[in-house]
Amino acid sequence: MSDWLGARRIINAYGTNTRLGGGLMAKEVTDAMAAAARGCVEMHDIQAAASRAIVDATGAEAGIVTAGAAAALMLGAAACIARLDPAVMNRLPDSADVANEFIVSRSQRNMYDRALRIAGGVIVEVGIPDRLSGPGVRDASAGELAEAITSRTAAVFHLAGAAAEPSLSEVVRVARARGVPVLVDAAAQLPPAENLHRFITEGADLVCFSGGKAIGGPQASGILAGRGDLVSSALIQMLDLDLPESQFVAPMEFAPLNQLRYLPHHGIGRVAKVGKEEIVGLVTALRRFVAEGQGARTARWMARLAALQPAVPRATLTPDRAKPGLTLLEIAFADREAAERADVALRMRNPPVHLDASRIRRGLLAVNPIALDDADLPALAAALKECCA
Ligand SMILES: *Cc1c(COP(=O)(O)O)cnc(C)c1O
Question: Where does the record locate the signal sequence feature (predicted)?
């Protein structure tokens, strides 16, 4: 309950938002990280072990642990541009002389896609998101996407989500026909746990997930999973390569690295290095996430909401439409101003309480159970009773 380094600890009923410190790690995960902190290992060996665990969980050919999903996007983009060419790896983010364009449906543009540009990517937008305009019903079409693919195309970028258009399967169909990979940002697409497999099954060549969101891994961890050659390219562009060339032997999991003409220098991903502690923590959390199963996880989350509901009897249990398996405890206020007053009052408390305020314009606040500590439930119930009842 205490403060850390003088920073005030909050009660996080918003969710696994990075701004609020992400989620919480189970003791098994922090124990594994503590143990990893007391030993050393060759980083490509521990990434090979992580790859085996990620392959088990996702069905992909290979996987690596990255410093967050945004880092996974940057590395995935670097892999799509450089492939297995060490000269291109050494030049990134300078990419003018190679295929460096990422085709994106305009409605899927978002501030995380800057990661593609950091790697040297150039974003090419397609379509008009007219369905968001009121009268319109259409968005980018698969045909428009197909026509945008040229010899300059490094990949098609897809932001996963129930509302994404064109759908991933349409994107995969046109991209495959033209021989370009599809890179998917699925950072926050868990739950449901099936999504660990889903995008790979639908034909994505690379998929990025956050480790610090629902998986329950370290806040600064993520996953890049997909085709062996592309994941291997991403890995070699992240590893520290201060070693004599002859000493580097690619683990079997990253066998495509044996095709490199020579060993590149530190790659573009060296600025987003991941520690052995994060790798061990993420893999431990991922195994737990898969083993627990969505039914048990949902029940654990629902028990928290059930403990809180008596504090605000008018609150309603509302399934999160974007995340099957997640239910929120939603509190409706008379108007936006009333919701804002309650939100401020909650955040002024000691400890401060943060509720999900993403629908505050509609006068709604909600308790999201994912990042809550069970030990905080009595204090949170008291805060809800005082500020929201
Ligand atoms: C959270 C998020 C990211 C970034 O994930 P990190 O693990 O915090 O780097 C990228 N894309 C989307 C859509 C996200 O929701």
Answer: none
